[in-house]
């Protein structure tokens, strides 16, 4: 992705979260200069990659296949400095903007429609030990109620509804056409995007970035690119 598009998408995300009445933490608005001033006290933010995340999953069209999210809190398994066993994200999902099919080997998560349009979640039965989809129906919890789903079946979450996804639940999601953008929350076990994502379409999680303009805000994946190790040692 070009840095200019990342800047644009974060700018759009800030406006969207504001329209939805969702308040981001102060560091969501830090400039590069702000980060350099606060770096000595920001080890938790840097180490756990809290903050902005913009991805097109390696593709050419963010609006077709992409996601903007903000990681609000996180922990790290086995690290005594960061003992939280949970994580939380907030996302902006557009109509027909697809997050590709994937599952997690470790993370169990609740996906929550916090407001706006409807979220379509396509669900599949995964075998995490063999990194593939399998046939047959499978159980899932929707709004705390047990349901049985068939592979590829669409679950539509209206505002206030949620689904609990375990490692056997591969999922692909997008905003329902004609319903508008969706404010999507995620409450989960510790999040590790580098080691706990299995994308079944062969996409990549983090895009290479073309630096065509300076960053207005620094995504979590770029902290150490723009804020030196010396600044937060």
Structure description:
The protein has 233 residues and is an alpha+beta fold. The chain has a single domain (3-228), classed as Sandwich (Jelly Rolls). The protein is 15% helix and 35% strand. The protein is built from four helices and 14 strands. It has helices at residues 3-19, 32-38, 43-48, 223-226, and strands spanning 51-55, 67-73, 86-93, 99-103, 109-116, 119-127, 132-134, 138-142, 145-149, 153-157, 162-165, 169-175, 182-189, 198-199. The model has no long low-confidence stretch (mean pLDDT 95).
| Element order: H for helix, E for strand | HHHEEEEEEEEEEEEEEH
End-to-end Cα distance: 29 Å
Q: What's the rounded overall pLDDT mean?
A: 95
Helix content: 10-25%
CATH topology: Jelly Rolls
The CATH C-level class name: Mainly Beta
Quantity of strands, as a count: 14
Q: Strands across the major sheet, in which order?
A: 1-2-3-13-5-11-8-9
Would you identify the regions where 5 or more consecutive residues have pLDDT less than 50?
Answer: none
Specify the structural class: alpha+beta
Radius of gyration: 18 Å
> Beta-sheet strand percentage?
25-35%
Number of domains: 1
Second rung of CATH, namely the architecture = Sandwich
Number of helical elements: 4
Shape descriptor reads: globular
The largest sheet, given as strand count, sense and whether it forms a barrel, is:
8 strands, antiparallel
GO molecular function: D-lyxose ketol-isomerase activity; metal ion binding
Cofactor: Mn(2+)
Protein name: D-lyxose ketol-isomerase
Enzyme class: isomerase
